[in-house]
């Protein structure tokens, strides 16, 4: 990450200024139940507050003995998952993810050799996982360095703030703007998100 940050900052003055303001960006700590656990947490957290998500994640984990595993969800009843706070749709989603991990459709090995495009293509077959969730998984869990999530509103807004673009670029307009930063577009995306946090804090 440090080498990638130095490389992209050297290519663009506006980005270098943002990097100097924000400082180093670090990866989030890995979950003890790995990439599968991150995907489950992502599904549970959709369209609810962070506080509600934490509570439901905690109750769901407790119902399964502490860790999220595909086999654990197979062995846990719908009633127990609903009692933990999962909606009917989210129960269907976590079951679909579990089934696709067990049958090999989705590879949750952190060292998977699947390409970024293959990971996204397989994950978006899972009920409740869209392209944005798949791209965040690539960036934060698999730690892939060349993801450019043009559908992320914060990335688009942060690009507009950093490069003083008005109006904010659409997803299709942002797509080619990442090209100068290959193969480290994930780093640029992370700093764009940080630009939004800085703007809101000021």
Automatic annotation (TrEMBL):
Alphabetical list of Gene3D superfamilies matching this protein: 1.10.1670.40, Hypothetical protein, domain 2
Protein name as it appears in the record: DNA-3-methyladenine glycosylase II
Annotated SUPFAM superfamilies: DNA-glycosylase
Pfam families found in the cross-reference section: HhH-GPD (PF00730)
Organism expressing this protein natively: Asanoa iriomotensis
Recorded catalytic activity of this chain's protein: Hydrolysis of alkylated DNA, releasing 3-methyladenine, 3-methylguanine, 7-methylguanine and 7-methyladenine
Keywords: DNA damage, DNA repair
Domain of life, source organism: Bacteria
Keyword DNA damage: yes
Sequence ranges assigned to domain HhH-GPD in this UniProt record: 44-194
E.C. no: 3.2.2.21
UniProt cross-references to SMART domains, sorted A to Z: ENDO3c
